[in-house]
Amino acid sequence: MKHDCLYILLLSIFSSTTVFSQSSHNHLLDNQVEGFVKTEGIPSLEEVIRKNELRLGVHINRDIQFKATLELLDSVYYYDDNNELSKKYVYFYDNSGKIKTVKGYELEQGKWKFDNQQTYKYNQDNLRSEILYQEWNGITFENDSRELYAYDTNNREISYKFEEWDDNGFNLVSQTLRSYFPDGKLKTYGNEYWEDGIMYNRMVYEYDSSERPIKYEMYGYDSKTGKHYLKYSIITAYDKWGNSVFEEKKSWNGSEVVLDLSSKKVYNEQGFITQYSEIVKSYYSEDIKDPYSRNMGYYKYDSQNRLTERWYKTEDYQQSLSVSEKTFYKDEYTHEILRTDTTINKDTGDLFTTQLKADKTFDENGRLLNYKSFKYNENNDGKYCLNFETDYSYKNDNEYEAIRTDYDGYENIQSYKKFIYRYIKEGNKNIEENINYVSPDKKNWVLDYSQKYEYVKDDDMDYYLYYRLDESEKNWVAFSGQIQDYRTIVSGNTVTTYNVYGHWDENINNWYYNNGYKRVEENGEHKKVSEYFIDVDSQEWEMERMQVFYYSNHDVVSNEIISDGLKDVQVYGAKGKINIRTNQNVLVQIYSISGVCCYNDNVDGFASISNLTSGVYIVRIGSDNIKIDVR
User: Fold this and answer.
1) Which residues are within 8 A (CB) of 349 and not within 5 positions of it... i.e. 6 or more apart?
2) What are phi and psi of 469, to 5 degrees?
3) Mean pLDDT of 249-270
4) Which of 135, 346, 433, 579 has minimal Cβ neighbours within 10 Å of its Cβ?
5) C-alpha distance from residue 568 to each of 132, 224, 582 (Å)
């Protein structure tokens, strides 16, 4: 039985994606090696639910349940992908306005056939405790599945279970577990998935009292050994200022849990990093006995929080590189940097030392005007020889042009390079352009490299897109990118929500959507919700189904009943009245339980028969008789 009133959320296996882009200022970092790699941590709970769920195109649709308890939903009509009316659900309430039962009907040959029902139960605090799903076989009800809810003493949900029925009873399929801090903030959030009495997948997220993620664990099940094992984990810790100072990632490699990353950092009171150490596993060296690189370093600052000294070392199975760098601030506009790089080849034991010096000059706005790089050359009388020099000119703070002159180590000019950089911000869109040229004589410039990086990252959409210049060097052509679109667009009474994941396809010069879900909600006389999915072959939206919601604006005491013979007629009781809504002209007759005719007329649209005394009434529409309770 498909529960159209509820999709069950299946969170995707946790994955973190780090996008690396070439820095727009790479030419400023010539002969430099960064000390550590940025890594992604544990996402927030909201991001986990939103992104992982939507990336797969899986949609939670509990609107019917939750809204019904607030606005007294009468019924929901379902239309299939051919826009044909196919089924309906009718809602019944208790005297306090809570859902009591939901009856499901299938449309067969123009008539409604009773098919299934949902029965709601509540605890002593009037919180939903169970939803029982049953199918009607023509004689009696057969159990299909159920949902179970549990709460703590503060009425916060701590457990949600979904169970399916077989001949032996109910069997657990999935459950969600929560725990809270005393102030109500979420402490842990976990999902479990079961089959044949065995938990085959489990994910747990843990947060600290400041709602920061501190742990994520995912477990699997080995059917051969009958044991659970840790598939993936992330641990994060923070200092008293809120800086992330520790991160550890582990994963299952098929036989054991191995370390993927371990990172430690220390910050000062001003928020600047002072020390770090890191171990990172390389996935491109699986056959290497030691596949890890190890990085460490420290930073020192002056009283103005300017970097004065840094040292770092990075080491893998091939080589060891250590860098020592000191910065001297001659005045407000001139800096000098002395740097020594030491490299050891682990195979041969050879040691290479490179001594560098750099002079930087800045303008009154702190923008770099001139950068000179010197390299120690023992073959040239042991002097520091000019390695390259770059001059900068600015149109504004977001656009500059730089001319670089390269030397051969003996202060002889080898070539020229020109860099053009632009940064543009358009709303939430960020654009960076880098264009590099080379020339032997500073006259004939030849395009060497071009890239435009466009990106948006906010609550509604994440995407990035890379461009390169075409042969004419006038037009940018996109060649790579990814998009995750969660926008909600409101236009009049229509709300459109997108849940789309895709990548840029250079062959079609457009986004190719690997997965896509669109929900269009139209709020007119009746609420209408249409759901669409992307066809990955045609890349067109295809309607999956449409739902029409009928709400009662009356003080309902007896829920709507819909005629089993006529597919577009609704009848429901309210306090002192009976309401009839129809899309066709029909004869309606209403009789009291004693046989007195209270109403006899045709209805085409909507009619409200009021001033009725409490009691049971028979509503005759065509050949159908419907019993309505009016209070």
Assistant:
1) none
2) -75, 145
3) 94
4) 346
5) 28, 56, 6
Structure tokens at 115: 């098919």
Helix (H) or strand (E) holding 544: strand 541-551
Has residue 235 got a pLDDT over 50? yes
DSSP state, residue 47? H
Three-class DSSP category at 418: strand
**CA geometry: angle at 548 spanning 581 and 565, to 5°?**
50
What confidence category does residue 285 fall into, taking pLDDT thresholds of 50, 70 and 90? low
CB 481 within 8 A of CB 466: yes
Rounded to the nearest 10°, the torsion over CA 45, 47, 48, 53 is 130
Residue 608 pLDDT class (50, 70, 90 cuts): confident
pLDDT tens string 242-252 = 999 999 999 99
pLDDT at 364: 93
Using alpha carbons, select from 506, 419, 513, 438 the residue that is nearest to residue 468. Answer: 506
Contacts of 108-114 spanning 24+ positions with Cβ under 8 A: 110/567, 111/564, 111/565, 111/567, 112/88, 112/562, 112/563, 112/564, 112/565, 112/567, 113/564, 114/564
CA distance 540 to 544: 12
What does 114-132 look like in DSSP terms, one character per residue?
A: EEEEEEEEE-TTS-EEEEE
Rounded Cα–Cα distance for residues 75 and 560 (Å): 7
Question: Which residue has better confidence, 182 or 51?
Answer: 182
* Token pair 């994606």 in the structure block, residue: 17
Helix, strand, coil shares, percent, the chain, to 5: 5, 60, 35
Could you give phi then psi for residue 559, rounded to 5 degrees?
Answer: -70, 160
Cα separations (Å) of 4 from 20, 71, 169, 285, 515? 41, 19, 23, 49, 21
Mean pLDDT for the stretch of residues 38-55: 40
Q: Which two tokens stand for residue 324?
A: 């020592």
Neighbouring C-beta atoms of residue 405, cutoff 10 Å: 16
What values do phi and psi take at 324, rounded to 5? Answer: -120, 125
Across residues 606-617, what is the average pLDDT? Answer: 83
User: 621 pLDDT band (50/70/90 cuts)?
Assistant: confident
3-state secondary structure of 70: helix
In total, the chain counts a number of residues equal to 631
C-alpha radius of gyration, the chain, whole number: 34
> Residue 566 — φ and ψ, nearest 5°?
-115, 125
Identify the band that residue 287 occupies on the pLDDT scale cut at 50, 70 and 90. Answer: low
d(CA 625, CA 631) in angstroms, rounded, equals: 19
Element (H, E) at 143: strand 141-151
C-alpha span between 359 and 344 (Å, rounded): 27
40, 208, 234, 299 from 267: Cα distances, Å:
19, 20, 21, 10
Q: Give yes or no for a contact between 465 and 481, defined as CB atoms under 8 angstroms apart.
A: yes
Residue 513 neighbours by CB under 8 Å, 6+ apart:
500, 501, 502, 534, 536, 539
